Amino acid sequence: MHLRDEEGFNFLSDIAAVDYLGWGERHVAGYFGTAAGRDLGSQSAQGFARTPQPKPARFAVNYQLTSVPVGRVVRVQVWLEDGQSVASVVEVWPTADWHEREAFDMMGIVFDGHPNLSRILMEDDWEGHPLRKDYPLGGEPVRFSGDE
Amino acid sequence: MAVTEPRRIYTGSRIPAPIPTVLQVPSDVTDPEDILQVNFGPNHPSTHGVLRLVVDLSGERVVGLRAVIGYLHTGFEKNMEQKTWWKAITYPERIDYVSFQNNELVFVLAIEKLLELEVPPKATWMRMLLCELNRIHSHLVFLGTSALELGAISMFWYCFRERDLVLDLSELATGMRMHTRYFQAGGLAEDVPRGFEAECRKFVEWMPKALDDYEAILSRNEIWLERTRGIGLLSAEDAIALGQSGPVLRASGVDWDLRRDRPYLAYPALDFNVPVYPNGDVYDRYLVRMDEMRESVRIIEQCLDGMPEGPWIADDRKVVLPPRHELHTSMESLIHHFKIVTEGYRVPEGEVYVTVESPRGEMGCLVVSDGGPKPWRVKFRAPSYVALEATATCMRDSLVADMIAIVGSLDSVMGEVDR
């Protein structure tokens, strides 16, 4: 990652974490719209079920980098299993501070060497990481209900 | 305010270490008893929402600062994963409720990129026009509220008068004043209504005069100059390191505008300038936004002149709703309509990152699709979120009274920060 600094990618736009848990378990069927209309030759164009391409690991961390005077852009992807951590880039791009905290908060990805890796959007004592695919969608426990 | 040496930007880096976004009380403070910790917010009229700043004060000087966010977190990105693609279009505009049109655009552009959908030129030009109207709207809100916070209450009334004109135009074209959901994958929801051009031309004629008025009130106003010049400094290197974009970056002397440097829509066909100012203070951020409004008026005029004729939405029945009248006569159209509304259209597997220049800077959107009718993951790169990372750097050694001017000049919208 440090080499990128010398290559001129001085501007870190974003760090986006994606959870691929369950990716490809659901078959995808149906029609695709394309520019030229319906391409009957392409896979699944006639409504056949199809499975998305498998991914190398559960989590992907996407770093969007730009070289500001030149205008070149590059995306760096890091693949992680649950429990693995990735090195922090705060020292290279200070703007990564909050982006990494958000990825930690929402996805539970640990960034080694981050000076202040704490929750940023959720409350400090929140349990779980809401943007993970296995985070429950509803059924939040309600206090003072039932037998109380 | 004690600005002894105005108009001189610092050398070296002022980004605090080790945490770039937290200003820690220096260890050589003579008497820790003198430090007063104050909670600024989360409910304060000048925080533009619910931002909480924990400020350590030594007398009137800010010696420590920590921004606490998340009070407005509503899980937009998680919600969008549960909606079909075309229902999810309503979410991005509510993320940043001041620059709704640009946010809508970035998500729609991402869908179109995945679908490889061609958009008719009329839709592209109308999108540019509305986005520039929206830029004016956003900058007017910035100008009105930040001037109000510094005591110039009349600016607020003037700015909101013109803001209402913009919203009237928005209502005329889209049926809604805000959160229009006018951009669809493939083009626009409806044709540009008759009479819109005439009304819009009236606005184009009026707006430069209003801008002259604002400048007459502010640009040579002694109080305004004293309160804004030389305050909230941010050098070009620090701005890039902190990922700043949009007016904040351009006020620090970095000539970078995505409309020109990474063009989208039909911006290369237009003639517009990118205002850049070198001093990196609150006053220059104000100047950049004033000039941008003038440029936006020019762009709107060019869009009106160059608006092509033709369809306003792509003719792709797998993605775009069929025309209403066909539903009564065509079985196929009825089926398509039903399928799109209930099940949604499917977007091919892939991932894209799309950026647009929103009024606040680089609005980015990473979209991952697994080929199904719902997005797998949507992640927004919110310029306001990044702008707030610069608070600690900008407020280093400033006075507590300037804090309000600095927060206002970064122009962050808390809805977008917390998402």
Search tags:
heterodimer; A: 148 residues; alpha+beta; three-stranded antiparallel β-sheet; two-stranded parallel sheet; 5 strands; globular; B: 419 residues; four-stranded antiparallel β-sheet; 17 helices; 46% helix
Explain the overall architecture:
Chain A has 148 residues and is α+β, with helices and mostly antiparallel strands. Chain A contains 2 helices and 5 strands, in the order αββββαβ. Chain A has helices at residues 2-7, 96-107; strands spanning 11-19, 59-66, 73-80, 85-87, 110-112. A 3-stranded antiparallel sheet of chain A has the order 1-2-3. The longest helix of chain A has 12 residues, at 96-107. Chain A starts with a helix and ends in a 36-residue tail after the last strand. The relative contact order of chain A is 0.18. Residues 29-40 of chain A have low confidence and may be disordered. Chain B has 419 residues and is of the alpha+beta class. A 4-stranded antiparallel sheet of chain B has the order 1-4-3-2. A 3-stranded antiparallel sheet of chain B has the order 7-8-9. In chain B, strands 5-6 form a two-stranded antiparallel sheet. In chain B, helix 5 runs antiparallel to helix 16 (400-410). The longest helix of chain B is centred in the first third of the chain and has 29 residues, at 121-149. The chains are: A alpha+beta (148), B alpha+beta (419).
Sheet having the most strands of chain B: 4 strands, antiparallel
Distance between the termini of chain A: 54 Å
- Content of β-strand of chain B: 5-15%
Give the integer mean of the pLDDT values of chain B.
Answer: 84
What is the helical fraction of chain A, as a range of percent? 10-25%
The strands making up the biggest β-sheet of chain B line up spatially as 1-4-3-2
Radius of gyration of chain B, whole Å:
23 Å
Structural class estimated from helices and strands of chain B: alpha+beta
Shape of chain A: globular
Question: Spans of chain B with pLDDT under 50 lasting ≥5 residues?
Answer: 1-7
Number of DSSP-assigned strands of chain B: 9
Estimate the global geometry of chain B from the Cα principal axes. Answer: globular
Average pLDDT score of chain A: 73
Strand order within the widest sheet of chain A? Answer: 1-2-3
Sheet-strand content of chain A, in percent, reads 15-25%
Largest interface: A-B, 52 and 58 residues
Oligomer: heterodimer
Total count of strands of chain A: 5
Q: Number of DSSP helices of chain A?
A: 2
